[in-house]
Design brief:
With 108 residues, the protein is an alpha+beta fold. The protein has a single domain (4-107), classed as Dynein light chain 2a, cytoplasmic (Beta-Lactamase, 2-Layer Sandwich), CATH 3.30.450.30. It has three helices and five strands. A five-stranded antiparallel β-sheet has the order 2-1-5-4-3, with helices on both faces. The longest helix is centred in the middle third of the chain and has 29 residues, at 34-62.
């Protein structure tokens, strides 16, 4: 099992964080100061809630298993955010392997 420090040193990863179910920061690794890390935890928690709700709607509409999704990605021009459960990381798009990041996120 990996930890946040292992995730934060992957090529292209800027920072990784774990947050509680209320959106507060549990721990962080990488290049985020404490205020930015707390704001990032709130953002990731909110996105988790949106994805859970969207997955519930997809499952109800499709009557098929497979939702909710196991992870999510918010893609920006240069930086993106990847999340699985209560763990997320910020990455530089030009440097990162998204497959490697999501593999690592699911192992944490």
């Amino acid at each position: 099992m990996l930890d946040l420090e292992s995730l934060s040193v992957l090529k292209g990863v800027i920072a990784a964080l774990r947050f509680y179910d209320d959106g507060t920061l549990a721990e962080a690794a990488g290049h985020l100061d404490q205020i930015d890390a707390q704001l990032a935890a709130e953002l990731c928690h909110a996105n988790n809630r949106i994805m859970q709700h969207t997955g519930d709607v997809f499952m109800a509409l499709s009557t098929k298993a497979g939702w909710p999704s196991r992870g999510w990605l918010m893609a920006g021009d240069q930086v993106s955010v990847c999340g699985v459960a209560e763990v997320a990381c910020f990455v530089r798009n030009s440097e990162v392997s998204f497959n490697e990041v999501f593999r690592s996120l699911t192992e944490i």
